[in-house]
Amino acid sequence: MSAADLFSAREGLEHIPMRDAEVYYLPHLPLAQPPHIVMDQLIDEVPWRAEKIVVWGKTYPQPRLIAWYGDAGKNYTYSGINLSPLPWTEALLDIKSRVEAVVGTAFNSVLLNYYRDHRDSMGLHSDDEPELGERPILASLSLGEERTFILKHKREKALKPVYLKLASGSLLLMTGDTQRYWKHGIDKETRPCGPRVNLTFRRILK
């Protein structure tokens, strides 16, 4: 049995077979309340920010709302956005502890993304900023509307993209060399859909 199989069997995570990547999926993370209740609470209580991002020297409105929470001093910068952490809330600390129990890794920050409807999206990118280290561990909790998570290899164009349906209450884990070799994102939907909140827990190293 491989290390990936051992990890999956121990934690109940499904290993997604991909070249140059370590990706795992848990259909349902036990939460204190049903996923839609947790999502509604976050939508109401989080001070969401509308930001602009810089892509290839051009500035665009970010097609979703965001918030950054974490330990003091765990700042994060991506696409020209500089984020200083808000202090942890009891609700986020509870979710964090549940994610850590499954993943077996301690996190010190979380990026929240609020997709308001079908028009909100996330462009293809890699979470490979220096402060995340060479082999980042990212644990992503989905709440609300099911959306399709797309992964594309950066170099091997012959490899077909991987499409994952992220159910409400599910946890996606990306580790190893995933960020080095793959990009990921979420397209806009052609049909109207409800809101989705995504929490990506990570560890800032500096």
Q: Can you walk me through this structure?
A:
By secondary structure, the chain is an alpha+beta fold. Helix content is about 20%, strand content about 35%. It is built from 4 helices and 15 strands. It has helices at about 5-10, 35-45, 90-105, 180, and strands spanning about 15, 20-25, 50-55, 60, 65-70, 75-80, 80-85, 110-115, 120-125, 140-145, 145-155, 160-165, 170-175, 180-185, 195-200. The strands form 4 sheets. Strands 1-2-13-10-15-8-5 form a 7-stranded antiparallel β-sheet. The protein has a 4-stranded antiparallel β-sheet with strand order 9-14-11-12. A two-stranded antiparallel ribbon has the order 3-4. The longest helix has 14 residues, at about 90-105. The chain is globular. The N and C termini lie far apart (about 35 Å). About 30% of the residues are buried.
